[in-house]
Write a structure and sequence with these properties.
heterodimer, A: alpha+beta, 6 strands, B: alpha+beta, five-stranded mixed sheet, 19 helices
């Protein structure tokens, strides 16, 4: 078993791992990185997504040997408590989460997507996230958050708001 | 190196010990399941089942009457509020936070909510059943009101003024017209005990004075979840020296392990390889209500997770099993099996009379209709596969869990460990991925397994179920067959209705006596209504999954309403309004149809574009979960392939006083989308030996390109009590879509999921 050196969120880290050890477990269990999550371990849901040299990678089935000395960026590296990065801030502003467990994958994909396509349409965002699963049904807010991040954080005006509160103060029953 | 993420929760600032009154020995511990008989008295030295007071506020107060167990105020005026509810991803903790800050009359930021720690929080039962807002919130409001009245009385003394002359604002009490006479909560009570019991009749603040409740306060948990900050997810709980465990489960339910490669235990990094006979292993058998499907399994505990994974794969390829075939049907034959094997449940005490009245009404009717609807087993499908983390040290253990029932999970772990008292286990619960009911009763098996492993190896063990384990060894929503018959009079009004609901429940989960609850509570005027349920259990493991039986009940009812409307040659909206007298029902239907641009129609458009309506009251306006909802679905159907594009759902909802409008919107959108996935794509597949839908490829769910737009109209009834909506918001979806498909094609789909081949078959079968 070798000592493997990984570059994670700008820092060199040395861990004991086999070349075939999956990146997700090395990050979470040995480096205490919280961002990428275990969802399926099968590269089917995207909860484990990290960026490797800017490219989204599903860390649950990515051996560290493939990563080598490339730059690994995780959710933890995009911002921190009290100082979220711009994509994270857009998600917070849109309240784009229910359980929040899939959101790591969404933010990492969004970060990569926006680098490639700084002004994506709704369709392009939906297509870009087609392989990221959300079980709670937060999809619409996630798309809105990414549009918001694309527009530099400003709220995007909508043709018709998603929610119209109507006050009803009837007689007490 | 790293202490558990939640050790800070055990450190309370401020002087004075927290008074925690927990029920050491649950007297007459009521069964957690509504309608089931109470648990038998426990054997000596066995921890008793905890009570589940989630449904009844007075029970919560009886169990934890001391105000000081709920509220602590330090000398700076900072408030800690202790709740037995847990945040499971629906924003409930923020809503509760608003309610208590409002009632105490302090700013939102003055309050810290403390939850999930069984050593600290009162027992408020299982966080499920959509009863947090309708029941638990009212208890917490009473606690806050009791405190507020006490503080007012203390201030009156301190300021030498009459209470009527005092004003409260932001944790400060002042004399009206003399702002020099003022005192803070911190001054009055800081660090001291109230030494009071909760007064359930404490006068609460009127809704007209609300400044926090009724506003869209941003969720307090979202920021940390976005940045992987401290306390975000329970999955991130760690201890130095922790070990990692994975299971190899049986290839069929009831399979017995004959032999396995024991040399795997010597592989690098492997701490232990532990086989379990189940049933048969004493540690598992002594856990009351452990409901995992039978089947032996092997647990591997290793230094590193990848080592555990490698060992499991090695064991998988060499283990020898004696397989079993114990399921009575497959996913293709299940609905016939339900009808052939269902035994009457006895849902109406006057069923025979209702049946004869309904039959007479149908016999005299101008038109008679009947239809049969079906819904499959479906997976909860949480994004986080089940996991648990336990650190057992002799007679004490700590467990970090994703449970919805902290005191229940604690109890089951304590039994597994052979403890005398549940309190020997200190359990932390909190946010995991959405669970939708996956951990809301005796489904705490993963905490049982991690505890046993930690005890066996004498080290902290984190057990992770694989995705396949989660799909195959978890639990499912029960399937249903719903048969409806009705008669219409000459004016197109429903003269009588009869319903039969067939389902299968394994054990008592979910409680079969609620199999037709939504049917029993429909607010339509339908004449005599005869309802019977039939339980054909056991087959697959079943549980309380978000809305339980109501989604399929109402798929049937609301589809059938449209079938009757068509027979009466009436517009589906008009047909419903003709059978409703409840203003709140009428209001949501009008709001949804107006927002959606409903085009009245008395026959299907047939062009491939369609609109459908559904109305649901879940279930009674006086229950804790009480939402009036009307949904309009807009769909496009490719008649050649049966492919349905759900373009939009327009949802109008009245859930009484709204605590957090954006929270309601988020829940409605989420529930609508989740239910669209269920309706269009989902069914558990299984053969006679095991579930065969084992990953996201064999069990696809709705993806980004398939998600409809969801518009939400909230009718805020501030004259009505606040009610929960978590389950209700999922119920009207399937029928709204089915009705829209009918409008688009003239074809009636009565079987969920509404996959393209089923829609195509319905189109092809049209007369």
């Amino acid at each position: 078993m070798a000592d493997i050196v990984l570059k994670v969120n700008g820092q060199s880290q040395t861990v004991e791992a086999e070349p075939e050890s999956q990146l997700l477990y090395v990050l979470r269990n040995q480096l205490q990185v919280n961002g990428p999550k275990f969802g399926c371990g099968l590269m089917q849901c995207g909860a484990c997504t990290v960026l490797v040299d800017g490219t989204p990678v599903r860390s649950c089935l990515t051996p560290v040997s493939v990563v080598g000395d490339k730059d690994v960026v995780t959710l933890d590296g995009l911002g921190e408590d009290g100082q979220p990065g711009p994509v994270q801030q857009a998600f917070i502003d849109e309240q784009a989460a229910q359980c929040g467990y899939c959101i790591n994958g969404m933010v990492m994909m969004a970060t990569a997507l926006l680098k490639q396509n700084p002004n994506p349409t709704d369709e392009e965002i939906r297509a870009g996230l087609a392989a990221n699963l959300c079980r709670c049904g937060t999809h619409l807010r996630i798309v809105k958050a990414i549009k918001r991040a694309a527009s530099g954080g400003a709220a995007t005006p909508e043709a018709s708001p998603a929610s119209s509160p109507v006050a009803r103060e009837g007689a007490a029953s | 190196m790293n202490s558990p993420s939640f050790s800070r929760r055990t450190l309370l600032a401020g002087s004075g010990a927290l008074v925690v009154s927990f029920n050491l020995f649950g007297s007459n511990a009521q069964d957690a399941t509504p309608g089931a008989s109470p648990a038998a008295s426990p054997a000596a030295g066995v921890p008793p089942m905890p009570e589940n007071p989630a449904w009844y506020g007075p029970d919560q107060i009886r169990l934890t009457p001391e105000l000081d167990s709920w509220i602590r105020i330090d000398d700076t005026g900072a408030v800690s509020f202790y709740t037995g509810r847990v945040e499971i991803g629906n924003g409930i903790m923020t809503a509760l936070h608003q309610i208590v800050a409002e009632e105490l009359t302090v700013s939102f930021d003055t309050v810290t909510m403390v939850s999930g720690d069984t050593n600290l929080v009162p027992n408020q039962g299982i966080t499920s059943g959509t009863n947090t807002i309708g029941v638990s919130a009212n208890v917490m409001r009473s606690a806050a009101a009791t405190a507020r009245h006490a503080l007012l009385a203390l201030a009156a003394k301190e300021l030498d003024a009459a209470e009527a002359d005092l004003v409260l604002a932001d944790g400060t009490v002042s004399v009206k017209d003399d702002s020099t006479k003022t005192v803070t909560y911190g001054d009055l009570i800081g660090g001291k005990h109230f030494d009071l019991k909760i007064d359930p009749d404490a006068v609460v603040k009127p809704v007209e004075e609300y400044t926090i409740v009724g506003t869209s306060v941003p969720r307090t948990d979202i920021p940390r979840k976005l940045v992987a900050g401290p306390g975000d997810f329970m999955e991130n709980s760690r201890l130095e020296g922790m070990r990692f465990a994975r299971n190899l489960r049986a290839p069929s339910y009831g399979a017995r392990l004959k032999s396995y490669d024991e040399t795997v235990a010597n592989d690098p990094g492997i701490i232990a390889v532990i086989p379990f006979t189940f049933p048969g292993d004493e540690r598992l058998d002594r856990v009351e209500r452990l409901e995992t499907m039978p089947g032996d399994f092997i647990s591997v505990v290793a230094e590193r997770e990848d080592q555990a994974l490698a060992a499991v794969e090695k064991l998988r390829s060499t283990a020898v099993w004696e397989n079993a075939e114990t399921l009575p049907a497959t996913h293709e034959t299940i609905h016939q099996w339900l009808q052939d094997n269902g035994k009457p449940i006895g849902l109406q005490k006057d069923y025979q009379k209702n049946l004869s009245d309904a039959t007479a009404a149908l016999d005299g009717a101008a038109q008679k209709l009947d239809a049969t609807y079906t819904g499959p087993f479906i997976h909860y499908g949480p994004i986080s596969s089940a996991w648990s983390f336990a650190d057992v040290q002799g007679e004490k253990a700590t467990v970090w869990s994703a449970t919805q029932w902290p005191f229940g999970a604690r109890w089951m772990a304590a039994q597994a460990l052979g403890y005398q008292a549940s309190e020997q286990v200190h359990l932390f619960a909190g946010s995991s991925s959405g669970l939708y009911g996956r951990r809301d009763d005796y489904d705490q098996e993963v905490d049982v397994e991690s505890a046993i492993l930690s005890q066996a190896v004498g080290e902290p063990v984190r057990l992770q179920w694989s995705r396949s384990d989660e799909f195959v060894w978890g639990q499912y929503r029960p399937p249903q067959v719903v048969k409806l018959s009705s008669g219409l009079d000459a004016d197109g009004k429903i003269a009588g209705m009869s319903a039969e609901v067939y389902t299968t429940v394994r054990g008592i989960h979910p409680d079969p006596t609620i199999a037709a609850m939504a049917l029993q509570d429909i607010p339509y005027t339908v004449g005599p209504l005869a309802i019977e349920g039939y339980n054909a259990g056991p087959s697959l493991r079943t549980g309380y999954m978000r809305n339980v039986f109501s989604g399929y009940n109402m798929f049937a009812v609301e589809s059938f309403m449209d079938e009757m409307a068509a027979a009466a040659k009436m517009d589906p909206v008009d047909f419903r309004l003709n059978h409703l007298s409840d203003d709140r029902a009428i209001d949501v239907i009008k709001a949804a149809t107006e927002k959606a641009g409903w085009k009245a129609h008395t026959e299907p458009d047939g062009s491939g574009v369609g609109q459908g309506i559904s109305f649901v009251l879940y279930h009674k306006s006086e229950g804790p979960a009480a939402a009036y909802m009307a949904y309009v679905a807009d769909v496009e159907v490719d008649k050649a392939t049966g492919d349905v594009k759900v373009k939009k759902l327009t949802c109008a909802i009245d859930c009484g006083t709204v605590v957090n409008p954006d929270g309601v919107t988020n829940q409605v959108q989420g529930g609508a989308i989740q239910a669209t996935s269920w309706a269009m794509k989902e069914q558990v597949t299984f053969d006679k030996s095991i579930v065969t839908s084992h990953d996201w490829v064999t069990y696809p769910i709705l993806t980004f390109p398939e998600v409809p737009e969801v518009d939400v109209v909230i009718l805020n009834r501030t004259d009505m009590p606040w009610k929960g909506i978590g389950e209700p918001v999922t119920v009207p979806v399937s029928s709204a879509i089915a009705n829209a498909i009918y409008d688009a094609t003239g074809a009636r789909v009565r079987s969920l999921p509404m996959t393209p081949d089923r829609v195509k078959a319905a189109i092809d079968a049209k007369p």
